[in-house]
Design brief:
The protein has helices spanning about 1-30, 40-70, 75-100. With about 100 residues, it is an all-alpha fold. The longest helix has 30 residues, at about 40-70.
Length: about 100
């Protein structure tokens, strides 16, 4: 779930900022224009990167906590290594898609 929320923020952050302005203007009946440059591309990229990385970190921590509660201590740590490697690959893949 944390990873999905991270990707949701990464994908829709800039849309919310631009279309949120439009929705506010239309709903309040204002005579204003939408500022397409409300936030810089660097800020959008930073928010996207942080959302992806934080989503994966929270996902790994949540999986670790669940594993420690459900499994014996010796199996809990060994069972997390493949998931940990997979999360690193997902994070690198997501950031590669973001910056490619």
């Amino acid at each position: 779930m944390p990873i999905a929320i991270g990707y949701l923020i990464a994908h829709y952050f800039s849309l919310l900022l631009i279309e949120g302005q439009r929705a506010t203007i239309l709903s309040l009946g204002l005579d204003a224009s939408v500022d397409q440059n409300a936030v810089s591309p660097a800020t959008i990229a930073t928010v996207q990167m942080l959302a992806i990385v934080l989503g994966h970190v929270v996902g790994v921590v949540a999986a670790h906590d669940r594993s420690v509660r459900l499994l014996r201590p010796d199996r809990a740590v060994a069972g997390q290594i493949p998931l940990f490697v997979l999360m690193i690959c997902y994070t690198i893949g997501g950031l590669t898609l973001l910056f490619a």
